[in-house]
Amino acid sequence: MGNQPGVPRDFGALEKRRLEAISLVRQGIPQKEVAQRLKVSRQTVSRWVTRQRLLGDEALKRSTRVGRIPELSAKQRELLKGLLAQSPRNFGYDGQLWTCPRVARLIESQFGVVYHAGHVWKILVSLGLRRAGVERVKSCGV
Q1: Fewer Cβ atoms within 10 Å of its own Cβ: the N or the C terminal residue of the chain?
Q2: Is 14 helix (H, G, I), strand (E, B) or coil?
Q3: How far apart are CA 17 and CA 38, in angstroms?
């Protein structure tokens, strides 16, 4: 289940579905039937009901984003892009290519944010630096 890559989630529709499930359960409809009507698992309905009982209807309201809050701000990401336009030699490395471990160390030294080298490729992709033909950024093994 879930959205196709690049397709934004409709947070309003998701909220409406959660609240509809609670409404149906309050009407006495079994969770299994509610799940079938809304095309979700029974466990999902159970989770929504538990959440509503513990935290109220507000707990089922719309989310504003998905995933963790990025540790690098937009300004830091732009600064990083500028730093990566420079030669790694300017930062004490041999050779002309940035590698994921080098980029991870650069981020830590410049911004105080620690990323695993294996995660750095996601940052590079989001900055537009991992597309075919981009020079100076070596493949990170992905």
Answers
A1: N
A2: helix
A3: 7
